[in-house]
Amino acid sequence: MSAGKPAMLRRAMLLMVPLIVFAIGGSFYAPSASVDTSRSGNSGSEPALSSLPPLPHWANDQLPDFSKYSDTTEKKAAFFSFLYPRIVLANSRILIERDYLDSLASKEELTAKEYRWLAQQAERLRVDAEPGSKEQFALLRKRLDVIPPSLVLAQAANESAWGTSRFAIKGNNLFGQWCFSKGCGLVPLGRAEGASHEVADFASPYRSVRAYIQNLNRHPTYQLLRDVRLKDRRNNTPLSGIELAEGLLGYSERGEEYVEEIRAMIRYNNLEFYDDDFRSVVRNLTPDSLEQLASTETETGLLPRQSSLNSTPAEG
User: Fold this and answer.
1) What's the rounded Cα separation, in Å, for the pair 256 and 264?
2) 3-class SS of residue 47
3) pLDDT surpassing 50 at residue 26
4) Which of 55, 92, 195, 258 is the most buried (most CB within 10 A)?
């Protein structure tokens, strides 16, 4: 056997472990029953909408202790099996909001309540356009959209050191998001003199995921990411984490080197598998089915191939 074959076999096993984990229900970690409501409100808030079901209880679970894994392969599998259901939850709720936005766009007249919802979304996503205008609907539709799971997983792993960083452990912050109000988060140990930013503190990892998606959907720095996503939408092309990573040049001072590192993580860990799974789950779902997905009672119900809501396969 050549010297390279053991490494190749080990990598193949690494890519298979998540599937084994999903098959046995994510048994590498035990979700915590505790809920911490004292954290700051950096949550990627959702304007009230009757079709948005209450968040399932597990969205409040805290981050597991990933430092207990001495085996890198097991740590990665546990990390992915914990985070992926939270990505599906966040994205499915965005799709419900997106569906409602489309329903308003098709109406000849809007009610005061509908105008208020548009105004709240416009404020949240930083859209400046005449209320109810075609321009507002177009801008909101561009910004109110999902992020491919592969990109979320890769950035979370990179920014949080696989869930073991100080900010992940103490603040449920998986993406290094900053905040700028005193006491809003954790003060970086190496913060420059005179700087005032903190690393945001979240009530749960799910809230960190939601806020991260909101950040990519509204910050001027990620305009290119949104442009690439819109082009794919118009061409009916499946959203790709590797492709959308192009829009992350401003996420790190490392620029292109950071983008290529995220892409390499997606490829090496076979994270496009999760993009394929998410598309297979949500394609052609009715609004009622999306609501069921967004209120799944157990997080294991959102692991790959576990959803009972799959519809007839079609390109998505």
Assistant:
1) 12
2) coil
3) no
4) 92
Q: What is the pLDDT of residues 98-143, one digit of tens each?
A: 999 999 999 999 999 999 999 999 999 999 999 999 999 999 999 9
Q: How far apart are CA 160 and CA 149, in angstroms?
A: 16
Distances, alpha carbon 137 to alpha carbons 23, 51, 81, 113, 121, in Å = 41, 19, 35, 16, 10
Q: Which of 7-16, 142-151, 188-197, 264-273 has the lowest mean pLDDT?
A: 7-16
Count of CA atoms in the C-beta half-sphere (13 A) of 41: 2
Nearest alpha carbon to residue 294 among 28, 81, 99: 99
Q: Which residues, at least 6 apart from 178, have a Cβ–Cβ distance to it below 8 Å?
A: 185, 197, 198, 199, 200
* Token output for 219: 């910050």
Burial call 154-177: b when 16+ CB within 10 Å, e when fewer: bbbbbbbebbbbebbbebbbbbbb
Written as one letter, the residue type at 144 is L
CA distance 173 to 178: 9
- The closest of 84, 59, 17 to 307, measured between CA atoms, is 84
SS3 state at 204: coil
How far is 88 from 153, CA to CA, in rounded Å?
A: 11
